Amino acid sequence: MNARVHDITMTVNGEETRATVDARKTLVDFLRDDAALTGSHIGCEHGVCGACSVRVDGAVVRGCLMLAVQCDGARVETIEGVAETDEITDLQEAFIARNALQCGYCTPGMLLTAQELLAAGGGVPSREQIRVHLSGNYCRCTGYQAIVDAVEAVAKARHSAQGTR
Ligand code: FES
Ligand code: FES
């Protein structure tokens, strides 16, 4: 086999996926081009904007900074898979209700990163904590206020729901 291509197997949104990929292919290019999962977006392509955020083995990573071959054997989750599980339905609804998206380019990465913060536990994060956690995800449209509003509202709602169980 050409030394530049490798056979890999990864679990993508719960399904085992096998492919032969160029060693230089990024994870986000693999997901978009080979797996037809275009919810992960490509912005800066050098780790700054967060548009390409996906989860690998449970951690949110930059899909443009990982190579597909590095994910051989890994569990990869994209916005499509996470949305299907209902894990972020309340966040998605809050983003819509508060106009926390306009063009939507940043939104998949924002949602995954916000969910990472909220799922970490530790009570309701402050607005400052939300801003810091989302600071690696750039939005050119909203000015961030509505995004912080939406994440804060969901954090409070989840917290009170826990209290009533
Ligand atoms: S495209 Fe990956 S961080 Fe911007
Ligand atoms: S909604 Fe357009 S970049 Fe965030």
Q: What this model shows, in words?
A:
With 165 residues, the protein is α+β, with helices and mostly antiparallel strands. It is 38% helix and 16% strand. It is built from six helices and five strands; from the N terminus they run ββαβββααααα. It has helices at 27-34, 79-84, 89-97, 107-119, 127-133, 145-163, and strands spanning 5-12, 15-22, 53-56, 59-62, 75-77. A five-stranded mixed beta sheet has the order 2-1-5-3-4, sandwiched between helices. α3 (89-97) crosses α6 (145-163). The model has no long low-confidence stretch (mean pLDDT 96). The structure holds FE2/S2 (inorganic) cluster (FES) (2 copies). Residues 42-45, 47-52, 62, 64 line the site of one FE2/S2 (inorganic) cluster.
How do the helices and strands line up, and which of them pair or pack?
Layout: E1 5-12, E2 15-22, H1 27-34, E3 53-56, E4 59-62, E5 75-77, H2 79-84, H3 89-97, H4 107-119, H5 127-133, H6 145-163
Parallel strand pairs: 1-5
Antiparallel strand pairs: 1-2, 3-4, 3-5
Bound molecules: FE2/S2 (inorganic) cluster (FES) (2 copies).
Summarize the structure.
With 165 residues, the chain is of the alpha+beta class.
What series of H and E elements makes up the topology? EEHEEEHHHHH
Number of strands: 5
Q: Sketch the major β-sheet.
A: 5 strands, mixed
Question: Poorly predicted ranges (pLDDT <50, ≥5 residues)?
Answer: none
On the 0-100 scale, what is the average pLDDT?
Answer: 96
> What does the overall shape look like?
elongated
Classify the oligomer: single chain
